[in-house]
Amino acid sequence: MNRRYHLSPLIFAVLTLSLAVAASPSDAELLQAIRVKDQGHLTDLQATFWKQAPAVNVTMLPQVIAIPKNPNASVRSLSVKAAHNGQWLAILLEWKDLTMNDRIVSDKFADQVAVELPVRYRKDALPSPMMGDPGGRVIIWQWRAAFQRDVDKGEPTVRDLYPNTLVDIYPDQVLKAIDVGPYTGALGLDNPISRHKQSPVLDQIAEGWGTMTVHSDQQADGKGEWRDGVWRVVITHPLVGVSENQPRLQPGDETVIAFAVWDGGNREVGARKAWSTWIPFRLAK
User: Which residue intervals of the chain are DSSP H helices?
Assistant: First the structure.
């Protein structure tokens, strides 16, 4: 039993206290989104405006409330910056990760990071920062290293993922198209996560544990790079979503924002993650 596991009762107490104060994040450091003149989706990691954006260090907590728990989460903090151009909002996240994990194969997972905002902000009635709650919907923009690899290098083949595999024949080579579905797994069920995407960021909504749903309108964009043991990821989205289930932000608005991160090399996936409570978030006019 390692030292961090011994500390789990203390961690649990901290988490319980954190959830209790999650509805009033006024004591946390404010994340300020600066206004910039750059146009477009703001996905450039090297854009000069990031040097002017103030950074906020966000403490990440191990997820030990829901099963499966993750008491030994790898990532303890994120450095976060924000910017907007009146049309698009961009969140820049940086964290240490000594190993780059950008492939998903059997029993191996990839790195991820996510941004969470309430769909409707009410200072006196915030949803749970742990994926919202009934009547308190949240949006979750999730960048995935595996998606980023697909965008940068193209969709992998089965042989790319499993070099030693042997295949005699595929069902679609001998069956009619209408009969192939049951043999194609998630693709046959039209699972949007299984299909190649043009963006490495998934646009999702939730209102409590186990309710995560992929938005029908995918508007989120982004870019991630791993270098010298550090991930730098920018997640962007239009300020005003196209549906009533997306935030409708304006310059000068105040809301709250929270984060989640996964270290694939530490077997973190799904609920096995690190997360943050709400922190106050303001967009410059």
Answer: 3-6, 8-21, 145-153, 158-161, 177-180, 185-188
For residue 232, list its beta bridge partners: 94, 225
Amino acid identity for residue 198 in this structure: Q
CA 280 – CA 140 distance, rounded (Å): 17
Q: Check if the beta carbon of residue 138 is closer than 8 Å to that of residue 215.
A: no
Task: List the structure tokens of 68.
Answer: 């499966």
Query: Cβ(153)–Cβ(161) under 8 Å?
Result: no
Q: Greater confidence, 28 or 124?
A: 124
- The dihedrals phi and psi of 156, each to the nearest 5 degrees, come to -75, 150
pLDDT at 7 over 70: no
pLDDT band at 250 (very low <50, low <70, confident <90, very high): very high
DSSP-assigned states of every residue in 153-214: H-PPPHHHH-TT---S--GGGTS-HHHHGGGSHHHHTT-GGGS--SSSEEEEEESSTT--EE
Structure tokens at 126: 């915030």
Cα 233 to Cα 144: distance, rounded to the nearest angstrom: 10
- pTM of the predicted model as reported, rounded to 2 decimal places: 0.88
- Tokens, residue 20: 């209790």
Tell whether omega for the bond before 62 is within 30 degrees of 0, i.e. cis.
no
